[in-house]
Write a structure and sequence with these properties.
The protein is mostly helical. Helices cover 65% and strands 0% of the residues. Helix 1 (10-26) packs across helix 2 (30-43).
Length: 48
């Protein structure tokens, strides 16, 4: 998740909050949301 390019970046913080809200709404962990988002982005050849 966080790396040198994302840590402290306001857009990263916003995305992290959105992912936490999604996880809470779906009753799943943040790691599950992050894994699904990562898989979807890799399938469409998009950058994280």
């Amino acid at each position: 998740m966080p790396n040198a390019q994302t840590e402290g970046n306001p857009l990263f913080v916003t995305e992290a909050v959105r992912m936490l809200e999604q996880a809470d709404e779906l009753f799943i962990s943040l790691n599950t949301v992050a894994r699904h988002v990562s898989h979807i982005l890799s399938k469409i050849d998009a950058a994280n």
